[in-house]
Design brief:
Layout lengths: L15 E3 L2 E3 L23 H9 L25 H14 L2 H7 E2 L3 H4 L16 E2 L5 H14 L7 H18 L13 E5 L7 E8 L2 E8 L2 E4 L3 E4 L6 E3 L2 E3 L3 H12 L3 H7 L25 E2 L5 H15 L4 H13 L5 E5 L10 E5 L3 E9 L8 E9 L10
Parallel strand pairs: 3-5
Antiparallel strand pairs: 1-2, 4-5, 5-6, 6-7, 7-8, 7-9, 9-16, 10-11, 12-13, 13-14, 14-15, 15-16
Length: 397
């Protein structure tokens, strides 16, 4: 890599120079649990674990199977910003004052930056209320809210959210570490700023291996990033009555793109060094390098450009269709100033495999690392979509 090597807020493992190759460790802010290898021995519940458990209520129904209550019919069925705010108002009117105090927060970029890929028990600064604090009917309203704000395709948008939650339920059946943090009921939702067609506010949803942050300004989506996606186990697992493959389409899209490249294109796209994790993860907002590295998209054929845009769509498609189209149009217009880079294998199925797309606005990363939450051998992905021009809706404070 060049001089803009990975630096993140918090402790960073030393950068080692072996045989001329830079090997980078993960910052605590971007790693799963600050450790590598299989889960450690059981530990007694901490005060944080017990506090989380004490907040959880009825956890008898998962988000995938829960019904959307009749109360949401008052908001109509036409997808729109107005319907989104209406659904939020229904939820806020139904919760207790104690829950509302954690659900409805003042807006600030500092609060918006409190997202993480860590389990619930490992990152208590994450804003909002746990899904498990809400009644089944209230979680049904949350389901309607998230479905309104996200894409409707299989393995994208809300369906991807459900499958990531299912992963935590799966981990909870096999893990001996961070037990209190591994549950689909430990996802959090919050509204930063008052949801309205005036002013600035953010719809935040996050949990282990997931961060969704839509920022709205005066009734319009101003930013859909940072947007983090990851999952363990990978590529598939059985849980909650279904086969779950929430990140398989992203991996397959990147592999198809790399497999389409000629030997000469691959040589130009290959990045120096080994990437053990993404760069621009949680608490690493300033770690997108200014200098682009890799293969210029101008050197791709029309078919290869279509494969690249298909990979981008697996991230942009996690928001509503109309809003996703805006981003796809933006990134398509910037293709001639975009570069593709990778490290590791073109199959994108091995530890330390890494893919990056870097444009004037677009930043996508996909990284595979060893399993950390399960005792199974294998690898799992971390990935992030950022928009350099409108992360956090372009807000600065």
């Amino acid at each position: 890599m060049k001089s803009n090597a990975y630096s993140a807020i918090g402790k960073v493992f030393p950068i080692l120079l072996l045989s001329g190759v830079i090997l980078q460790g993960c910052a605590n802010g971007a790693s799963d649990h600050g450790h590598n290898g299989p889960p450690g021995p059981p530990r007694p519940p901490s005060a944080e674990d017990e506090a989380i458990q004490a907040r959880l209520g009825d956890t008898s129904s998962s988000m995938g199977s829960i019904a959307i209550p009749d109360a949401v019919e008052a908001c109509g069925d036409d997808h729109s910003f107005t319907r989104l705010v209406c659904l939020i108002d229904i939820l806020k009117a139904d919760v207790s004052d104690d829950i509302l105090a954690n659900l409805q927060l003042d807006y600030s970029v500092a609060e918006a930056k409190n997202w993480s890929n860590l389990p619930a028990g490992a990152f208590p600064a994450r804003p909002g209320v746990f899904l498990g604090e809400l009644s089944v009917e209230q979680r049904g309203v949350v389901k309607a809210i998230l479905m309104e704000a996200t894409g409707e395709e299989d393995n994208e948008g809300f369906d991807e959210i459900v499958q990531t939650l299912n992963a935590d339920d799966y981990i909870g059946t096999v893990s001996t570490d961070y037990k209190a943090g591994y549950s689909s009921y430990n996802g959090k939702i919050a509204f930063l700023g008052e949801p309205s067609d005036q002013g600035t506010w953010e719809l935040y949803y996050g949990g282990h291996h997931f961060a969704f942050s839509n920022t709205y300004v005066d009734g319009k989506l101003a930013g859909a990033t940072p947007s983090f996606r990851g999952v363990e186990p990978f590529p598939s697992f059985e849980m909650n009555g279904r086969t779950n493959i929430p990140m398989l389409q992203e991996r397959d899209a990147f592999a198809a793109l790399l497999h389409s490249l000629s030997d000469e294109q691959l040589d130009e796209a290959r990045l120096e060094g080994t990437y053990r994790d993404i760069l621009a993860g949680p608490q690493a907002d300033d770690d997108i390098p200014e200098e682009q590295e890799g293969l210029s998209v101008t050197k791709l054929t029309g078919e290869q450009k279509a494969l690249l845009l298909a990979a981008v769509k697996t991230y942009v498609g996690d928001i509503s269709e109309a809003e996703a189209q805006h981003y796809m149009d933006k990134y398509t217009a910037e293709l001639d100033r975009t570069v593709l880079g990778f490290s590791g294998t073109t199959d994108v199925n091995s530890e330390d495999d890494y893919v990056r797309i870097h444009g004037p606005s677009l930043w996508l990363e996909f990284s595979l690392q060893s399993n950390k939450s399960t005792p199974d051998k294998g690898n799992h992905p971390h990935s992030v979509w950022r928009d350099i021009t409108d992360d956090y809706g372009g807000q600065t404070e």
